[in-house]
Amino acid sequence: MTISNAEWEIMRVIWTKEETTSSDIIEVLSHKTDWTASTVKTLLKRLVDKGYLVVKKNGRQFLYSPAFSEEESINKQVDDLFGKFCQRKHATILEHLLSETLMTASDVKQLQALLLSKETLEQVPCDCIPGQCRCQEHVEETR
Ligand SMILES: [Zn+2]
């Protein structure tokens, strides 16, 4: 199930607080958006319907907590995004991300270790339908 940019803003607050009320979310997001209380409540309802949030009643308040971890959800978002691109382009996209990403020495070390143990293929298979990338038209790649 995909999640909109607006819903993502809500999820970030809930992952940070772990369990929270709509008024807390409205307060946090007032620093970033001009959403009304009813906008936030609509988004919360949608997230509950999509199964991203668990809601429980505590007196007169509703408490919202995440149904999935932030890490799990980030990975899913990134997998969905990469799924939009030809598999053969993924390494180039990662090169771009690596050069743009701020890293510590220990981040670099971890990535180096990962790369050294990475299994490689003779050629990455194209997973596109004909006509949506150039791989299957035997057009020379520029790299
Ligand atoms: Zn392709």
From TrEMBL:
Pfam families: Penicillinase_R. Keywords: DNA-binding, Transcription, Transcription regulation. It comes from the Bacteria. Belongs to the BlaI transcriptional regulatory family. This is CopY/TcrY family copper transport repressor. It comes from Streptococcus saliviloxodontae.
